[in-house]
Amino acid sequence: MKKLNHDSALYKAGLLGILCAVCGLLLSVANAITAPIIAENALATIKANLEEIYPGATFNDVTEQYIGKDETGLIDGIYEAEGKGYIFTLHGVGYNSNGFTFMVGFDNDGAISGYTALEQQETSGIGARAFEQEYSDQIKSLTSSDPIPLLSGATLTSTAVQKGIDAAKAIFNDLQGISYDPNAQAATPEPAKPQPLANEDYSSNNVTVEEISNDGKTGVYHCTAKGFEGTNEADVTIDLESGTITSIAVTAFNDTPGVGDTATTDAELARYSGKGLSDMIDSTTGASMTSRSLRAMAANALSLATGTELTPGTDSGASGSGIGAEDFSEREAGCVVYTNLDETAFVYSCKATGYQGVNKAYVTVDTTTGTVKSIEVTEFNDTPGVGDKATAAEELARYEGATLESTVNATTGASMTSASIRAMAAAALKMAAGN
Amino acid sequence: MSEKKAKKQSLFTRLLVENPVFGLYLGICSALAITTNINNAIGMGIAVTIVLTLSNILVSSIRNLTPADIHIPVYIVIIATLVTIVGMVIQAYTPSLYSALGAFIDLIVVNCIILGRAEAFASMNPIGPSILDGLTMGCSYTMSILAMSFFRQILGTGMLSLSNPFTNAEIFSIRLIPEGFELPFFKEQFGAFITFACLAAAVSAFKANVEKKEKSAEL
Amino acid sequence: MNLFTLFISAMLINNIILSKFIGMCPFMGVSTSMDSAVGMGLAVIFVVFCASVLSYGLYYAILAPLHLEYMKLICFILVIAAFVQFVELFIKKNSPSLYKSLGIYLPLITTNCAVLYVALDNITQEYTLLETIVNSIGVPAGFMLMLCIFSTIRERLRGNDVPEAFQGNPIAFIIAAIMALAFSSLAGLV
């Protein structure tokens, strides 16, 4: 037999062609065998997540049908839970450039039935709060026609979440024929404004107080109060002469370990020392219910010890007609004229007591309109990592344009430092008005 | 002379000196990227060994039919097909391994070891020795990346754990470094480079030692 | 995604050598002197850009409509090999000087993980054509940057007293480790 000419172009082309054809065939066989298994795996993983929102429901993957309506590109998958509602899997980019994925579920009548993170690597304590209970509960209380609020202190992450849910809302409302205003803005969620201990409403905490000992100088009171899910107990030691708390010792903790107990650490409990009924105590971020139970116990113990009635509901000044009317006597705020940038803009060097130290700032005021132009914090002596949330650029930016009649909300978790900044702003504005 | 040397050297010595990863610096991309735990290392090692052995068999069987100037595309097509099939199988039957290895399964195609052995050995030798060569190189590669993962996992997470990739069931998991004392940077890029450098230096020192011994034995 | 952010991310933040470990094989061999570094770097940018755009076109024009996505590995690697071969012949014929400075690196690039990785990544990340172009320039630009930095350091290293065991490649990996640490601080920038 004539030996094949290995050098001819025809041979080479032929060899390559046959090789490619054989390989292509092998691949399509392999694909036919493995592709269905791969698809099944993918659905199984997502099904486990979908069942979190609608356990036991039958799910249909309707992504192909409706994904074309999505203009944002944020929606990864759309799943119908037969008879119950729809679940959207979405992605977004918050602080961590790798992004995160989450899902949101809507009942057929529009109520948001579920909201959970699937995969996220946001910074714990900051961005990750957008996937924790407080914000999650907020979202689950809304419907598909409500605007989604942001979470202060986790703006980047919650903005991405907001965009994603808005994208899902657009398609869901379109499907169900629900009309809504896509441009409505959520009211900035009122952070639980810290109020003096005597004024907070503890009716849901079912507080009990029992005097254990009282020698005229120091009283010890055993208190119980409902926290998030369980009843917490503590012994409150009160200095009867000054009507202030000496110490609090938690004797029983029945809330969520790892979550609520951030409010019962020694450092947090130490914040109660020296406080009386007219003092405000910040809630511990991420453990607001447990914090509330502690405050309830402290307030009721103080009330019993000093014989003063608690007056829930009367806000002694955190809101009101603007920062000009707010009571900043405890902040000991004061300003001096530092310089003037031109005839109308004056810079005041101010100081005010925050939580534990004196904070200083330059407040620039436009004297013709009586508005704050900017605040620059020059010295911060409160707790780093806690109080400095109130001195972040975004928080200070909220003062721009503020007058004595403006209300500026406190920064959640940094109310004392916020108060000190408001005090400085008010003092500077008053000084400018006085000129 | 070199054959005599080869016979003198024990298997272990040869494995270290001709080690594709630390001795010849081939296939280091995957050695650095996926060696964060021994699960990945074993998975990748087996995948590479399978591809290497099968490609050696195929290349060796058509070595007399392939003209010299198109041999590169031919080998590439064969290897790419094998890698795609292995990738599909991994994705279907061991999805956890697939998501852990990620893009590096596809990059086995350009793993210098496979094309290198195809060209250097399989294209010139019959099927039998080619199979042996494939298995040996594959095992050598697997041992190397296992060594890397071993160090990186223990130092980086403090634990040594193995789980069944088919069912995700844990086979064993022991903590060797108390919690809080592990060095997380070994899980990251920095740790990968450092571990590799140290192991490469160790192999290099071993090589130099072996050569010195042989030189003094000859004298 | 913002194109500028994409470029910076591809070049610096998710640098292909220090962050993704891809392209290490030729990297160690070529980063010993500045001249070869520049030559290799430019060659890689050119090849990656062209090959990625070609692969992108091939995937969306032929493979996807025919539901042959599983063929992408074979097709891409063949496209890359063919393209490199073609470019080498072209340069050899038309510009011997260019061939002298760049051409010798071209065969090395075929097995450079970076080329295949970028081509595959563009598909996995579902980039548009514009994003593909930006990514395909950014990634090899990062590769070239690293090559140049490394070659300068290794040139300097020649006069140093490196322990015997670490001479050659191991010390290069130690350098890479320190650089990886430095560049990892960029994470979270975008």
Description of the structure:
The complex is a heterotrimer of chains A (about 425), B (about 220) and C (about 190). With about 425 residues, chain A is α+β, with helices and mostly antiparallel strands. Chain A folds into three domains: about 60-175, Sufe protein. Chain: A; about 195-305; about 330-435, no CATH class. Helices cover about 30% and strands about 25% of the residues of chain A. Chain A contains eight helices and 13 strands. In chain A, β7 (about 220-225) and β8 form a beta hairpin. Mean pLDDT of chain A is about 85; it is low at about 315-320. Chain B is mainly α. Chain B has one domain. Chain B contains nine helices and two strands, in the order ααααααααββα. A two-stranded antiparallel ribbon of chain B has the order 1-2. The two termini of chain B are about 15 Å apart. The mean pLDDT of chain B is about 85. Helix content of chain C is about 75%, strand content about 0%. Chain C is globular. Chain C has helices at about 5-15, 25-30, 35-65, 70-95, 95-100, 105-110, 115-125, 130-155, 170-185. Chain C contains nine helices and no strands. Chain C has one domain (about 10-185). Classes of the chains: A alpha+beta (about 425), B mainly alpha (about 220), C mainly alpha (about 190).
How is the topology of this model organized?
The complex is a heterotrimer of chains A (435), B (219) and C (190).
Chain A lengths: L8 H45 L5 E3 L1 H4 L8 E7 L3 E8 L7 E8 L4 E8 L13 H8 L14 H22 L31 E7 L3 E9 L4 E9 L4 E9 L13 H5 L17 H19 L27 E7 L4 E9 L4 E9 L4 E9 L13 H5 L17 H20 L1
Antiparallel strand pairs in A: 1-2, 2-3, 3-4, 4-5, 6-7, 7-8, 8-9, 10-11, 11-12, 12-13
Chain B lengths: L1 H7 L2 H7 L10 H6 L4 H24 L9 H23 L1 H7 L10 H11 L4 H31 L1 E5 L6 E6 L13 H30 L1
Antiparallel strand pairs in B: 1-2
Helix pairs in contact in B: 4-5, 4-7, 4-8, 5-6, 5-7, 7-8, 8-9
Chain C lengths: L2 H11 L10 H7 L3 H30 L8 H23 L1 H6 L4 H5 L2 H12 L4 H29 L11 H16 L6
